[in-house]
Amino acid sequence: MKYILEMLKLQQELNDNTNGKGWERGTTKNGKVIDWNRCIYLEVAELIDSYPWKHWKNIDSTPNYENIKIEIVDIWHFVMSEALRVYKIENRGDIEKLANDIENLEEFKIFLKNSPQKIDNFYKEIEIIERLPKSIFCNKDILEIISNFFQVAQIALSYKELYKLYIGKNILNIFRQNHGYKSGEYIKVWRGKEDNVILQEILENNSNITPKKLYKTLKEKYPKE
To answer: Is residue 55 part of a domain?
Structure first.
């Protein structure tokens, strides 16, 4: 189950295609500054907003765990991107070395063995989630940041779910780029549902769908106008 290496390779390919070769130096092919850490903590904020934490609003609501799963996968994209950047710039080793270092992390081994660990008191889940941006702001090493990510992932995902949703979101990101995401032409809401929700529905109804078939299905469902 070398999912980590496969996901890292796919993320490298996605970043190369979207941002241009050499994005690890900190800018896109168009000269835009890249800050993966900022991407991570802003996605963490979106993840926390999937919980009914606001004492003045939606008092009787429950956490939206389907959206929590998607937000965790979005964070994983950016965590991997930052790890790829660090290993490249700091000459720590190639992508296989990074995958091996991740697989040797204690938190990854725990994540690998356990089922999702939902906590009755969701405020405690938020506390776990908030460790991730704290590790960024405290300039912790990338491997510690990744360890904190796997603590977050345990809340809602198994290893296989993380892989399946990552592959799905990777294909969706490619689909978005091919349909005008950067230029603002892309339609994100498809007949009243966000594309992330459409993606989850496709994956739930087709557990063994291939990346090629997934892309084709997204194309078939995409609004023509």
So the answer is: yes
User: How many CB atoms lie under 10 A from the CB of residue 14?
Assistant: 18
In a domain, 49, yes or no: yes
The pLDDT assigned to 225 comes to 65
DSSP string over 18-55 = HH-TTGGGSB-TTS-B--HHHHHHHHHHHHHTTS---T
Query: Is 181 a domain residue?
Result: no
pLDDT of 117 reads 74
Query: What are residue 33's DSSP bridge partners?
Result: 27
Tell me the Cα Rg of the chain: 18
Q: Domain of 132: which CATH number?
A: 1.10.4010.10
- Domain count of the chain? 1
Mean pLDDT of 142-168: 95
pLDDT tens readout for residues 168-205: 998 998 899 899 888 889 999 998 999 989 998 998 88
Please indicate, yes or no, if residue 180 is contained in any of the structural domains. no
Q: Residue 116: is it exposed, middle or buried by C-beta count within 10 angstroms (0-12/13-18/19+)?
A: middle
Sorted by sequence, the CB contacts under 8 Å of residue 113 that are 6+ apart come out as none
